[in-house]
Design a protein that fits this description.
With 109 residues, the chain is α+β, with helices and mostly antiparallel strands. The protein is built from 2 helices and 5 strands; from the N terminus they run βββααββ. The protein is elongated.
Amino acid sequence: MVPNDRKRARGGTVAEIVRLDFHDFFGRLIDRIKGKTTEKNKGVIMLEKIEQGFGISERDREKFREEMLEEQKEAIQASPRRLKEKKIAWTRDGEGKLISPFKSKKLNK
């Protein structure tokens, strides 16, 4: 059974309904676009409206992509260092079972 907020496309796949609303400062509706996720032309129109509404240029998009790639590279490079720094000393009890280093009880030796 399909939820009420979804529609079936002709191919049998589920197409979600999307809506883009622009309101003014006082909450009055300025512009509204509504369509299914299978309607590519309405998606392109929505992207153009967002670019116009927020004043996004192609240079802004390129700059954002470069910053995101740089952040991802830094996160990847930093993760092995963090793993090396946080080594946990595991110990075993008399039976050979691992003992958690986070336990508050001390070993009876």
